Amino acid sequence: MEVDPPAEAAGAAAAMAFEDSPADSRWGVLRHRHFRTIWFAAFGSYVGNWFEFVAVRWIVSQETKSEEWMGYLAAAQLCPTLVLGMLGGLVADSVNRRSLIIVTQAFMMLIALAMAGATFAGYANRWVLLGLTLAQGVTVAFNTPAWQVLTPRLVPKSDLTKAITLNGISFNMARVIGPAIGGVIMKAFQSPTTVMTAGAAAAIVVADSTPPATRGAAALLLFNALTFIGVMLAVLTTPDAPAPPEMRGAWKHPAVVLTRSREAMIWVWQRKGPRAVMLAIVVFAMLATPIMQLLPLMVSEVYHRREDTFGTLLTVMGIGAVTGGLALKLIPKWYPMHHLIPVSILFGGFFILIFSLLTSVAAAMIIMFCIGVFWMWGFNSSAAAMQHLVSDDMRGRVSAVVNTIAMGLMPVGTWIAGAAGHAGERALRHYRPGMVHSGTGTQLGLAFVSATLVLAGLVMLIWRTPEVDGLSPGDPGYDRRPGFIRGLTGQAHRPRS
Q1: How far, CA to CA in Å, does 409 sit from each of 6, 22, 52, 332, 413?
Q2: How far apart are CA 354 and CA 61, in angstroms?
Q3: CA dist., res. 144 & res. 399, Å (int)
Q4: Share of the chain above pLDDT 70, in %
Q5: Residue 3: pLDDT above 60?
Q6: What is the residue extent of each domain of the chain?
Q7: Crossing angle, helix 337-357 and helix 361-389, to 10 degrees?
Q8: Measured between alpha carbons, how far is 410 from 406 in angstroms, rounded to an integer?
Q9: Cα(130)–Cα(371) distance, rounded to whole angstroms?
Q10: Which among 69, 58, 367 is positioned nearest to 183, based on CA atoms?
Q11: Cβ distance 120 to 218 under 8 Å?
């Protein structure tokens, strides 16, 4: 299974389900044998995904020292979804879903093996990894929609919410474990002595001729490739899933894709609530995710640390995300989404801005935890609001359109950060050359996009859109009076004694 770490779609959607699931019964859904098998296999694959994320970003960041190349990697991974996302959804509706998962998983395993092989051989340069990441992004555009219909086939409808909850827990547990273990493995496998004592299989493959700087990344990429075997075996145990007769072969008619997409886009854009939610999702996805792409450069060029610190920072952010998901239960039920969404965007941007200015790893750890909390809140509250607004007959199409646009535009934020960082560094070098160091451009670029995110959150919080909560003029609680404090406290919605 391949999941884009920055996207957070699985974890965010599941966090909403978690809010409604009794803590003492959510694990009971594992009694369903097929779901239990898939859940454990998916957890291993999620960990492998994070191994790959750490390895590829670290290799390219160390070769290029470039913010632009972090953007290129993000674009290769996510832009295929922008172009092919709706077609992938249509294909998933019109072919055998189980067969589609197996085929796409096999392709992604071959791509992962190619990454590992190129790294072992010392050929994993920026261009090779960019091309393989692009191939993987294309495959993911067809794999993801097939996975989205897998869980409803494995559990009864009464257990679906709890199953989605556990999927989100699995995703965020892997986010905590994967980067931390990945950083340790990368550091350990850099030593030929460690390689020879780490296991016979790894010792045979990770030859001493592999460059020390990439030997650990090569081990991570190999481990990731092996996780696909477990997923394919698990999927083969699930019931067959042929396409509905009325949809069979529909992927051969591209006009269907355009018609479905157009209907969903018109629905979203012509309604104040859905339009505001979509803009919030796009803004947060585009301006918050550069921290994920630029983190390797922050570690190596600002903190002057190695890959284990990179993995630890990602782990701390994952712990913050898990904590944020649990903390959603503490938010009063009367506090509306059209307040919570901009608050999450505002404080998410604020903590990313603070992070961009830090030079202390210890302080960065604390701030990364806070970023994780509001990262989860931002994506979760937006996804939940859209699900409450859309009708059942439009749900799939609207989700596909919004996710496609948001994921497709994610790399734009990294490119903006790179351009702003270079411009700021040139200006600073001219007027204050003594303040420039190897990581100045990265810090300035991240500061620019996060400051923009703070500004966007402020605007959304001061001039709110009650339609996000399905309110109309004249409804109780419908309040469009501008004001920062009114937006922060939600005082118009507080129950009166």
Answers
A1: 12, 36, 22, 33, 8
A2: 22
A3: 13
A4: 84
A5: no
A6: 9-472+479-485
A7: 160
A8: 6
A9: 28
A10: 58
A11: yes
DSSP code at position 30:
G
Mind listing the pLDDT tens digit for each residue in 86-107? 777 778 778 888 899 999 999 9
Query: Highest mean pLDDT range out of 18-27, 178-187, 214-223?
Result: 214-223
Please state the length of the chain.
497
The burial class, CB within 10 Å (0-12 / 13-18 / 19+), for 256 is: middle
* CA distances (Å), origin 51, targets 57, 116, 212, 285: 10, 11, 18, 22
Residue 124 has pLDDT above 90, yes or no: no
DSSP-H helix ranges across 189-306: 192-197, 200-205, 212-236, 254-269, 272-288, 290-297
Q: Which CATH number fits domain 9-472+479-485: 3.40.50.360, 1.20.1250.20, 3.60.21.10, 3.50.50.60?
A: 1.20.1250.20
Half-sphere exposure of 363 (CA within 13 A, CB side): 10
* Contact (CB, 8 A) for 424 and 448: yes
C-beta separation of 133 from 55 below 8 A: no
pLDDT tens for each residue of 281-335: 999 999 998 998 899 999 989 998 877 788 889 889 888 888 887 788 788 889 9
Residues 6+ apart with CB under 8 A from 436: 425, 428, 429
Q: 13-38: per-residue pLDDT in tens?
A: 443 433 444 444 556 667 777 788 88
- Looking up tokens 């996009």, which residue turns up? 449
- Report the interhelical angle of 67-94 vs 254-269 (nearest 10°): 110
253: left (phi over 0), alpha (psi -120 to 50) or beta: beta
Q: Are 53 and 112 in contact (CB under 8 A)?
A: no
Residue 21: partners with Cβ closer than 8 Å, 6 or more residues away: 161, 162, 165
Write the CB contacts of 292 (distance below 8 Å, at least 6 apart in sequence). Answer: 5, 6
- The two three-digit tokens of residue 165, written as one number: 């909850």
In Å, what is the CA distance from 54 to each residue of 176, 181, 184, 312?
A: 13, 10, 11, 11
Nearest to 109 by CA among 52, 59, 56, 148: 52
